Amino acid sequence: AAAELGPYRHYMQKEIFEQPRAIGDTLQGIEGADPGLFGQGADAIFDGVDSLLILACGTSYYAGLTAKYWIEALAGIPVNVEIASEYRYRVSVPNSRHLVVTISQSGETADTLAALKHAQSQGMRNTLTICNVATSAMVRECRLNFLTHAGVEIGVASTKAFTTQLVGLFLLALTLAKLKGRLNAEQEADHIRALRHLPVAIQSVLALEPQIMSWADEFVRKENALFLGRGMHYPIALEGALKLKEISYIHAEAYPAGELKHGPLALVTEQMPVVTVAPQDSLIKKLQSNMQEVRARGGHLYVFADAGSNIRNEPGVHVIRMPEHYGMLSPILHVVPMQLLAYHTACARGTDVDKPRNLAKSVTVE
Ligand code: G6P
């Protein structure tokens, strides 16, 4: 195992650092947003679709939530994202024109498989999976698939599977947008170029590790943390909080920053670190006023800001600057420092990072 780990202390760290390779492999040979990426007959299936129903669990569910922002904005198709264990037991409204999309690293999660079967039993036949295991039950059960090429993921807390799922989902958004006549050739080429730039962009985010380790030194002593994001970065805040709780056992929760005033602000004291995803997008002004609300209550902000941002280090405000502004792909870049923050905090607390207590890599029983 030592040989396999190379310079890394844990599989999770190795897998975080493998993300440029995993994304590069997932994009291998892809030159455009073509239905063929999702399997034979995808064009006919996509043509008949009027909405998406995304079903998943855990980290894969947060990939689905991110995809909703992309697909609705780019393709103009309504998207519902549901936690598989809820959907399978709920009385819902079937729609044979749904594209049912399951997202799963393992392709074997019992709840996600059961949710898929539930949808099929209600007459929904257009099924696609975004999956990391070619031989899995999920790939066998779905008519279409997009395989992520993350490679075997050993750390229980998912990292490279998540970012490669996001790549597959972004390609799905582009493909649907193109079919709906909402993406011209030039825009398509720009998006593909941006995707191809991801491995390099992630490499420069990984270089922030020493700065993130110094934040981790402060998180070690905390028992609670709040994560804030807005828009397509809200699911990334959710994923950041999940990573931290899974492996460091610090209680963490995420909120869309606009909801602060409806509850979590009551929890903010000097003891509460507030991790904020703050890229320079159309919501930055709103987010900065939310950050002010936290500062006014003595909360300590840990902010991921863009290089050109006017958010400055000051007492109670710690800033790490992301190397570039990544536009629509920004969620893929912003999750990486969150993974590193959780990882280094867990290491400093001495937990079993790759096998956190009470959790399993793949939950194949209900
Ligand atoms: C478990 C794992 C998570 C994973 C979830 C869904 O909870 O610990 O990392 O996100 O299952 O797994 P799947 O294989 O369906 O993506």
TrEMBL record:
Protein name: Glutamine--fructose-6-phosphate aminotransferase [isomerizing]
Location(s) in or outside the cell: Cytoplasm
Active-site residue numbers: 361
Key words, A-Z: Aminotransferase, Cytoplasm, Glutamine amidotransferase, Repeat, Transferase
Leading EC class: transferase
Reaction it catalyzes: D-fructose 6-phosphate + L-glutamine = D-glucosamine 6-phosphate + L-glutamate
Source taxonomy: Bacteria, Pseudomonadati, Pseudomonadota, Betaproteobacteria, Burkholderiales
Native species: Pigmentiphaga soli
EC number(s) recorded for this UniProt protein: 2.6.1.16
Underlying gene: glmS
KW Repeat (keyword) present: yes
Covered range of the whole protein: 245 to 610 of 610
Keyword hit for Transferase: yes
Sequence ranges assigned to domain SIS in this UniProt record: 41-182, 215-356
Quaternary state and interactors: Homodimer.
Summary of the function given for this chain in its UniProt record: Catalyzes the first step in hexosamine metabolism, converting fructose-6P into glucosamine-6P using glutamine as a nitrogen source.
